[in-house]
Design brief:
The complex is a heterodimer. Chain A has 7 helices and 7 strands, in the order E-H-E-H-H-E-E-H-E-H-E-E-H-H. In chain A, helix 1 links the parallel strand 1 and strand 2. In chain A, helix 1 crosses helix 6 and helix 2 crosses helix 4. Chain B is an alpha/beta fold. In chain B, helix 6 packs parallel to helix 7 and helix 10 crosses helix 11. Chain B has 2 domains: about 350 residues, Luciferase-like domain (TIM Barrel, Alpha-Beta Barrel); about 35 residues, no CATH class. The chains are: A alpha/beta, B alpha/beta. At the A-B interface, helix 2 and helix 7 of A face helix 5, helix 6, helix 7 and helix 9 of B.
Amino acid sequence: MTRPTVVVITAGLSQPSSTRLLGERLAAALDTALGERGAAPEIEVVELREHARDLTNQLLTGFASTGLGDLVERVRRADALVAVTPIFSASYSGLFKMFFDLLPTDTLVGRPTLIAATAGSARHSLALEHALRPLFAYLRAVVVPTAVFAASEDWASAGALDERVARAAGELAALIRPGHALPPAAHGLHGRPAPDDEVVPFAQLLAAGRG
Amino acid sequence: MQFGIFTVGDVTTDPTTGRTPGEGERIKAMVTIAKHAEEVGLDVFATGEHHNPPFVPSSPTTMLGYLAAQTERLVLSTSTTLITTNDPVKIAEDFAMLQHLADGRVDLMMGRGNTGPVYPWFGRDIRDGIALAVENYDLLHRLWREDVVSWEGRFRTPLQGFTSTPRPLDGVPPFVWHGSIRSPEIAEQAAYYGDGFFANHIFWPTYHFQRLIDLYRQRYEHYGHGRADQAVVGLGGQVFIRPSSQDAVREFRPYFDHAPVYGYGPSLEEFTSQTPLTVGSPQEVIEKTLTFREHFGDYQRQLFLADHAGLPLKTVLEQLDELGAVVQVLRRELDARRPADVPDAPTHASLLAARDAEATAVLAAGEDAADLVGASGEGVRR
């Protein structure tokens, strides 16, 4: 059986950050859940912090650095995505949004995705539902029903958080089908697919105008 | 091989002095720069067309007509002429007029513009961008080749028995390049007509443009204009040259750091490693420019961006002096590498000669045919 691949994107800023910690907890739970299904996944945890300058540069110049281009390619090929952000000002962080703004169109279509967030207070927990879930709905990812939120106090009493982490990981594992159809390659400018060798013949372009 | 400069015509504050030139000063500076391009031995000057500040060149044929009177050898061109929002009838007439005034030293590059709002300023819709480029150019192509045109399309009023005036110089339309940074449809369009394709790759990595140019070359061959390696390709370039590399980097860095397009983003070092930008000694510029041929094949026109990001006129003129010397070497090196059956960029003289040669060949074939049918007693209509 092909080993399923999963990329965990975390947008934590401090090192170590509780956002990264939550990402790792989700990765471990996913490893267990997939293991129970007889699969040995390859799970990579990526800190967007390391790509912060490249993300800014790509916003300004329209093209990806080699490192960022490689990351986008790994996300494109991954069988599932876990996206974890700190909640800033009632929503995902700017760094988190920059990455998803720069993903080429259609990269995440149909992709099983788990969303998670951290914040200092449980009062931010619905940001997952009113900010992250609509973002991934727009990107046409398939987001699992359980979104995982961890406030500072959750790290003290691990029981309830563990349960949500395990439930969400189980939901994601159930959706993973290795060898999904790949979306268009990611090497165009401004996140557009690069031109491929299939071209609309000019007679057809002309006829479209006359029709 | 043709070498030249192309300008965006931006009015940009010099970040080292805080000084911003006025519009009139910038327009006159563009003229001075173009004339100096001829003096240092460059072949082509191309101006952009923009209809929004901070850019000044909204009326390219006015500027190029003035330059036609002030220069003797320079080919006057555009980078680009907006095929989407200009009326193709007016483009046909403006550039035919310019051909006569400039004794044929004219070609032009079609483009779709740099900003969405330009479409509604001229009564168009950006969502029709490609369709406008296709339909308008098809009409323009006919207006230059058929004395009387009846035409109907989606985007302008129909024409009945219309003759655009003046007719192209010697009946030979100006050569057309199509510029694009991302649209395979435009590469296809250039290939279909056997026109040139210009990739302004100065702001982006090579890999993106290799695919577009390869596509254009394959389709050029597909449409029977010649082999893929004979297709007519032009490239952009961006250089800042001083005798010593360190001086070039030190002087250009503040302009780079604040420049439109890439300023405030990647470092000068990152950007020069990822894009065609070269900041350094003449030898470094020569070496980097020679790599373009390795990436894209033998090509016909190399244009450099020299006057942007607030560089003062004096500096730009010095850059042209450096460029003139660099181009002498590049011309020798690239001409030596190019196979004999890969053509130069078309000029009015070469297009006129090709047209006359074709007419002679057709005439000769007709006479042979007449001899044959004459023997069997049938007439032939020419």
